[in-house]
Design a protein that fits this description.
Helix content: 25-40%
Number of strands: 19
Radius of gyration: 24 Å
CATH class of one domain: Alpha Beta
CATH topology of one domain: TIM Barrel
CATH architecture of one domain: Alpha-Beta Barrel
Strand order of the largest sheet: 9-8-7-3-2-1-11-10
CATH superfamily of one domain: Glycosidases
Structural class: alpha/beta
Length: about 525
């Protein structure tokens, strides 16, 4: 078994967590990375065995507009700071995964600067895609070029150029040899060249045994990326969406359907995709859930459904974080770990308990998934000989599932007894449980007490949409104004349901909203 097949990941966005300035002054390094060392023990306390940290390399602003692939961002410190940090992670038994931003560079990257200076005469003109010296852009460069997501500060690299490919692979070798990293998360993998990913896979195989490649992929057939020739895993955005919306809508069929569809993709019985409920690009799970009590069953599912569970820094404490106009800063805050740990936080106790169970119960790593019971508010399934039950309803939920002998609840310490090959029992509303056969139950599992204020629905669910100034171009609208424009188009075609409003509210991607608006006749 490879190390990542039973890993629990913790995800840190370092520029945010350390409170680094939003723009890089390119001055003397400020040693913020060492401030993260106390978080290593915190990760271990929660059962974490892998750390995805990034972006880390010199960039203009948010880290994904890379300036130098061989230098730690000066706002975080130096290469030595990163080297020492990785050593301490390894000493604690934590593998380290960095961000690989290979689809595009920032405008301060040396090749782009040469292109600006020398135009047609630049030896790097073929490092970028579709450079057009008859065009222009908002920077008045006197030429245009392909970018990522409509943002010209992210100039798209030409990965078909052997020189570009060799340069990036040399950076990967440097990170592995100098910092002893254990893998990469590939930014924007859904638009990366498959030829490049195959070359990266070959390179990774020669660098380190079990070097893990995980790609950021939003939608699609994940087997296009996850196979022996390209990547080990991708971000499971399908499950991410299902986990919160199935609770908000009281519809567990959405999760069960998502799991079945992914198993039918041919990813293998465990579908070892990277599972998460929030990250640096989407709103915090505590902000997405209409009922705060659903934090409990959502995380039981995160740790027990097939996949590799991950926690985004701070969400183990149930912190809030919502998208803002043109900014993800609220999703990437600076946090004081000591202050957070001083509070008696039931969310944190739950995450630690789930980490202990996952660490000890091998059935949660590779046990066969079998659906046992499914309604809109109740969901039961097996992982090997373990039974998992969750409910999104406020009232007591009753289950009748197959079983033999005595089972013990890993979170409650409660015993249930099978009769005639069936288990008949109930669990409290808005909770979940992991039932382990008595002969396999560990006596050191400590029952947890979990409390969360239950509210019927988020107050913002039916809030009035934000309207743009009449005549304002779509390209200049905020995400909230684009959402309002979609709602107005929908209203012109008929009644707008709560579900339609929710679909619009959950779409925070400018390009997607623009395409949606333009699709109306």
């Amino acid at each position: 078994m490879a190390w990542y097949e039973n890993a629990i990941f913790y995800h840190i966005y370092p520029l945010g967590l350390t409170g680094a300035p939003e723009r890089n002054p390119y001055g003397e390094p400020v040693h913020r990375l060492p401030e993260l060392i106390p978080w290593i023990e915190h990760i271990r306390e929660m059962g974490g065995t892998g750390l995805y940290i990034g972006p880390l390399f010199e960039s203009v602003s948010h880290g994904y507009d890379t300036t130098d692939y061989f230098k730690v961002d000066g706002r975080l410190g130096t290469n030595d700071d990163l080297r020492n940090f990785v050593i301490k992670c390894h000493e604690a038994g934590i593998r380290v995964i960095l961000d690989g931003v290979f689809n595009h560079t920032g405008r301060d990257f040396f090749a782009f600067q040469d292109l600006l200076a020398n135009r047609e005469g630049s030896r790097y003109r073929d490092w970028y895609c579709n450079v057009n010296f008859w065009g222009n852009n908002e920077y008045n460069d006197g030429f245009s070029y392909e970018n990522w997501g409509g943002y010209n500060q992210l100039a798209k690299l030409n990965l078909q150029n052997p020189e570009v490919r060799d340069y990036l692979l040399s950076a990967v070798r440097f990170w592995t040899e100098e910092f002893d990293i254990d893998g990469l998360r590939l930014d924007a993998a859904d638009v990366l060249s498959f030829d490049f990913m195959r070359a990266l896979r070959d390179e990774a195989n020669g660098l380190k045994p079990e070097f893990w490649l995980m790609g950021e992929v939003i939608h699609g057939d994940y087997t296009r990326w996850v196979n022996e020739n390209t990547l080990n895993s991708v971000t499971n955005y399908h499950l991410h969406k299902a986990l919160y919306s199935a609770h908000n809508d009281h519809n567990y069929f959405e999760i069960a359907h998502t799991v079945k569809r992914q198993m039918d993709m041919g990813l293998g019985r465990n579908a070892l995709l990277y599972s998460f409920v929030d990250n640096h690009d989407v709103e915090r799970i505590a902000s997405k859930l209409h009922n705060p009590a659903h934090f409990f069953p959502v995380h039981v599912l995160l740790y027990t459904l097939p996949g590799i569970p991950s926690i985004y820094y701070g969400s183990e404490f149930g912190i809030q974080g919502k998208k803002e106009k043109y900014s993800d800063a609220s999703l990437r805050p600076a946090l004081n770990l000591s202050a957070l740990l001083k509070e008696d936080n039931s969310c944190y106790h739950l995450i630690c308990a789930l980490g202990r169970v996952y660490d000890h119960e091998q059935a949660l790593w590779y046990g066969e998934y079998r659906e046992l019971q499914l309604t809109t508010t109740q969901y039961a399934f097996a992982r090997g000989d373990i039974v998992v039950t969750v409910t999104n309803g406020d009232g007591e939920a009753y289950f009748d599932v197959p079983g033999e002998g005595i089972y013990c609840g890993a979170l409650s310490g409660r015993e249930i007894h099978a009769e005639y090959g069936r288990l008949h029992f109930s669990i409290p509303g808005n909770t979940g449980e992991i039932w382990i056969p008595q002969g396999e139950y560990r006596k050191d599992y400590t029952p947890i007490a979990y409390q969360a204020e239950s509210v019927p629905a988020a107050e913002e669910k039916n809030a009035e949409p934000v309207r743009a100034t009449p005549g304002k171009p779509l390209e200049e609208m905020t995400v909230q104004e684009l959402q309002g424009e979609v709602l107005s188009k929908l209203a012109a075609n008929g009644p707008v349901t709560d579900r339609m409003r929710q679909d619009v509210a959950e779409n925070v991607y400018r390009d997607s909203l623009l395409n949606w608006i333009r699709s109306f006749r």
